[in-house]
Amino acid sequence: MSRPPHDPAPDVATGPEKLIAVEEHGAEPVPHERRHGRPRQLLWTWASPQVGFATVFIGVLSVTAFGLPFPQAVAALVLGAGLGSVAHGLLSTDGPRFGVPQMVIGRLSFGHRGNALPSAVNALVSGVGWFAVNTVGGALALNSLTGLPPLPSLLALVVLEIVIGYVGHDLVHRFERYAFPVLAVIFLLAGAWILRGADLGGAGSAGSGGGVGGFGGFMLAFSAVFGFTAGWNPCASDYARYLPASTPPRATAWYSGLGLFVSIAVVSVIGAASGTLAAPAGASPTDAFTGQLPGWLGDLTLVAIILGAMAAATLNVYSAAVSLSSLALPLPGRMGRASLVALVGAVGTAAGWASLADAGHAFENFLLVIAYWIAPWLGVVLMERALRVLPGDVLAGRLQDRSFRNAAGPVALLAGIAVSVPLFSNQAVFVGLVPRVWPGVGDLTCPVGFGLGALLYALLSASLRRRARTISAV
Question: Per the confidence metrics, is the pTM higher than 0.90?
Answer without folding.
Answer: no
